[in-house]
């Protein structure tokens, strides 16, 4: 099965991600009372053995990161990974709790809140644009080094689509990476949905 | 929001907690699971403000999560690792359990947009959480053991001369101490055969014996002369153990070396003649006597040869003791280089040498003796000295008597001397 | 209705977005409400500025997140070049602060992506002269 996407499919996927990210940023901005900088989302189709390196590209190997993962399923399913540095998570908690110091529970709660918004908005919007419905599962969260983000056993499937965007609230010193991942059959379903959209557009 | 009787029955059958709040955070539904686990009856909570009944709940956080769920029209969650539960519920486990309070997975779902009704769902994830904690504890132990193992491996690497050898004799890994001992870099040794460390002083027979034993899955140990990179001779006690894989198949070998160079040198001092460096009388006697007394062995006979330098006293007086000594060294050398590995030559007295030739016939022994006689006669000595030797030889078997055998060879020598010297006599 | 009849001459429209699909969206939307126009496309702010300087467009549809030169800068440059330029910002960024910024810098209005046909009608009816 060829998982290659043509230019038009990539383009429309990027555009759909862009729109989803716009709504996400606005929702976070409302939460934080700050202004977020929009970035051009990246769409990549890579083999699973390159996934670890891809995700770790902008991360430093010695730092601790707050990593939240949330699964979603439906006509096409996948996983959203939200990565935020320990420093950003502290700033986030301070902002949300309006306090100079915060407890571990409060920090975890803030990150969970942010992840909620990020995942729900991006995936819901993605689903809406593609005319499908999805369901979310409870997110899991942990603090880890970047090498631990991708399980070594991941090689059981072959290809992964990575949609990478950045949540950038520089003035608040809160920056995070969002990865939306789908694999194998879900990729084909995504392709079909994109083709349908392209058909409507270029008809 | 009104909950119909059917729905109420359904929600009451669930093994999880479900609360419905209206827009003012008042409880409009409280399912059976909650009644049982919180000991709060429906009558006592319906219509009441949730935060009043449970003041431990952080209202700001819950309200915000509720607001978010409406904003996004999707469920929001509490962190499942949270130490503080939303609603404290005690666990009933008696026999075990590190958790006293129930660990909860809490999700908040919007129910009704206009009325701002929201459902709070509580799931008991205590078992999973306990497993997580246990796993974390085990991992900690594993990490500690690994650290210990690493430090022990480091200790071994620095203090023990050892190598891991594959079944074909290639060195797969070597300790730092081994590298230091033999004077090589690790990279120079990996991939090379272990025989690289050996020396020509090792008798051929030893290797075939060694390999057949270890390939058969047994251990082998022995003393060997090995060479360092700088060609320094080192005596080692080598022990090779077989290593088996999980299925009991022979996988590789572990080779351990002990440096016995000093011990060996000391030994040699005892058994060697200091001047000529060949074996001394004490060593010869010991060896000679050991060849007798074994009635079972019906082996082929061996020859005992006694060699005496002719007119040695005169040579010493004429040319001086230094020349005499040098002559002894040369003769000893000639004798030693002529013998096979199973034979032995030793300095028996002032100008006397003895030789043991294993498994020879009378004619063979005489031939060897004659050859030696000519060699010594033709040899060059210092100060244009030439000399000759007399040879007395005999054959013996293991059932013979050592004293008698020696006397026969000695008598033969006496005859050689009396017969004019520079000759070989057999008795 | 009258406004539409009066406008039945070919407008010069410049559509700026790094995504081909996004540009297509706009072209399609404009065509579907019956507007005949001469279209020019640009992939980033720099291309947009050169295109505008080459030939003034009647309307510019401008995206914000683009490489090389983003929409914010392109907007300022175009307005600096021609203070009467009619720029409609179309972006995925739906933060209110973003809208405030672009309006302050001279855009006629800002709309979130994708623009529906209804919205497009409103644009031609109210925002543009």
Overall description:
The complex is a heterotrimer of chains A (203), B (427) and C (129). By secondary structure, chain A is an alpha+beta fold. Chain A has one domain (7-202): Chemotaxis protein chec, CATH 3.40.1550. Chain A is built from five helices and seven strands. In chain A, a hairpin with a 3-residue loop joins strand 2 (65-74) and strand 3. The radius of gyration of chain A is 17 Å and the shape is globular. Chain B is an alpha+beta fold and 427 residues long. Chain B is built from 15 helices and 15 strands. Chain B has helices spanning 5-13, 32-38, 42-45, 50-53, 59-72, 126-159, 176-182, 186-189, 204-215, 261-271, 281-290, 312-319, 321-338, 362-378, 402-418, and strands at 17-21, 27-30, 76-77, 104-112, 117-124, 161-165, 171-174, 220-227, 233-244, 250-259, 302-309, 344-347, 352-357, 389-396, 424-426. Chain B has a five-stranded antiparallel β-sheet with strand order 2-1-5-4-3. A five-stranded antiparallel β-sheet of chain B has the order 7-6-10-9-8, with helices on both faces. A five-stranded mixed β-sheet of chain B has the order 12-13-11-14-15, with helices on both faces. In chain B, helix 12 (312-319) packs across helix 13. The longest helix of chain B has 34 residues, at 126-159. The radius of gyration of chain B is 47 Å and the shape is rod-shaped. Chain C has 129 residues and is an alpha/beta fold. Chain C has six helices and five strands. Chain C has helices at residues 2-6, 20-32, 45-54, 71-81, 96-104, 117-127; strands at 11-16, 37-42, 59-62, 87-91, 109-112. In chain C, strands 2-1-3-4-5 form a five-stranded parallel β-sheet, with helices on both faces. The longest helix of chain C has 13 residues, at 20-32. Chain C is globular and about 30 Å long. The interface between A and C is medium-sized, with 23 and 23 residues.
């Amino acid at each position: 099965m060829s998982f290659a996407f043509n230019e038009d499919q990539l383009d429309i996927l990027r555009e759909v991600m862009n729109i989803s990210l716009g709504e996400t940023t606005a929702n976070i901005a409302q939460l934080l009372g700050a202004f977020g900088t929009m970035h051009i989302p990246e769409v990549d189709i890579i083999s699973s053995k390159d996934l670890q390196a891809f995700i770790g590209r902008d991360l430093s190997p010695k730092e601790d990161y707050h990593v939240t993962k949330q699964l979603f399923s439906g006509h096409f399913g996948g996983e959203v990974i939200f990565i935020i540095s320990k420093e950003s998570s502290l700033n986030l908690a301070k902002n949300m709790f309006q306090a100079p110091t915060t407890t571990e529970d409060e920090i975890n709660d803030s990150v969970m809140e942010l992840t909620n918004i990020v995942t729900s908005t991006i995936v819901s919007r993605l689903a809406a644009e593609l005319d499908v419905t999805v369901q979310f599962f409870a997110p899991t969260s942990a603090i880890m080094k970047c090498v631990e983000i991708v399980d070594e056993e991941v090689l059981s499937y072959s290809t992964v689509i990575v949609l990478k965007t950045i949540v950038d609230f520089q003035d608040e010193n809160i920056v995070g990476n969002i990865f939306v991942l789908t694999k194998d059959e879900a990729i084909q379903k995504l392709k079909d949905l994109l083709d349908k959209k392209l058909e409507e557009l270029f008809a | 929001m009104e909950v119909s009787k059917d729905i109420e029955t359904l929600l009451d059958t669930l093994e999880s907690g479900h609360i419905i709040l209206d827009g003012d955070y008042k409880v409009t539904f409280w399912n059976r699971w909650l009644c049982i686990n919180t000991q709060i009856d429906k009558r006592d909570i319906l219509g009441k403000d949730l935060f009043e009944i449970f003041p431990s709940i952080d209202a700001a956080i819950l309200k915000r999560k509720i607001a978010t769920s409406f904003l996004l029209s999707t469920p929001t969650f509490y962190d499942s690792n949270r130490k503080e539960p939303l609603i404290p519920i005690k666990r009933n486990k008696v026999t075990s359990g590190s958790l006293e309070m129930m660990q909860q997975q809490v999700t908040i779902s919007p129910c009704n947009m206009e009325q701002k009704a929201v459902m709070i769902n509580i799931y008991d994830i205590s078992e999973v959480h306990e497993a997580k904690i246990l796993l974390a504890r085990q991992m900690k132990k594993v990490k500690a053991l690994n650290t210990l193992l690493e430090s022990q491996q480091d200790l071994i690497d620095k203090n023990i001369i050892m190598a891991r050898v594959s079944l074909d004799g290639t060195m797969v890994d070597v300790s730092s101490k081994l590298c230091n001992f033999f004077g090589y870099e690790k990279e120079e040794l990996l991939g090379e055969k272990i025989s690289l460390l050996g020396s020509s002083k090792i008798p051929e027979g030893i290797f075939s014996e060694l390999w057949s034993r270890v390939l058969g899955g047994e251990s082998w140990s022995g003393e060997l002369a090995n060479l360092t990179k700088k060609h320094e001779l080192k005596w080692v006690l080598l022990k090779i153990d077989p290593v088996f894989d999980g299925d009991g198949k022979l996988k590789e070998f572990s080779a351990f070396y002990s440096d016995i160079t000093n011990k060996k040198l000391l030994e040699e001092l005892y058994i060697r003649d200091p001047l000529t460096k060949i074996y001394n009388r004490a060593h010869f006697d010991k060896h000679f006597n050991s060849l007798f007394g074994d009635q079972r062995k019906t082996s082929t006979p061996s020859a005992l040869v006694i060699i005496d330098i002719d007119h040695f006293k005169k040579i010493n007086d004429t040319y001086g003791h230094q020349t005499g000594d040098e002559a002894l060294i040369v003769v000893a050398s000639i004798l030693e280089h002529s013998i096979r590995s199973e034979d032995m030559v030793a300095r028996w007295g002032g100008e006397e040498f003895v030789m043991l030739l294993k498994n020879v016939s009378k004619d063979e022994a005489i031939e060897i003796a004659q050859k030696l006689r000519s060699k010594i006669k033709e040899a060059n000595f210092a100060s244009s000295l030439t000399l000759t030797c007399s040879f007395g030889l005999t054959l013996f078997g293991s059932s013979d008597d050592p004293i008698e055998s020696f006397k026969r060879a000695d008598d033969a020598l006496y005859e050689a001397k009396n017969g004019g010297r520079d000759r070989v006599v057999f008795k | 209705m009258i406004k539409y009849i009066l406008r039945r001459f070919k407008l010069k429209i410049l559509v700026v977005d790094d995504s081909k699909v996004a540009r297509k969206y706009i072209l399609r939307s404009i065509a579907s409400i019956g507007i005949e126009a001469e279209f020019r496309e640009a992939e980033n702010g720099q291309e947009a500025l050169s295109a505008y300087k080459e030939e003034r467009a009647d309307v510019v549809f401008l995206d914000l997140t683009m490489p090389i030169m983003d929409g914010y800068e392109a907007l300022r440059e175009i307005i600096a070049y021609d203070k009467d330029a009619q720029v409609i910002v179309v972006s995925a960024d739906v933060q209110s602060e973003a809208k405030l910024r672009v309006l302050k810098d001279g855009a006629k209005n800002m709309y979130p992506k994708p623009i529906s046909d209804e919205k497009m009608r409103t644009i031609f009816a109210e925002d543009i002269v």
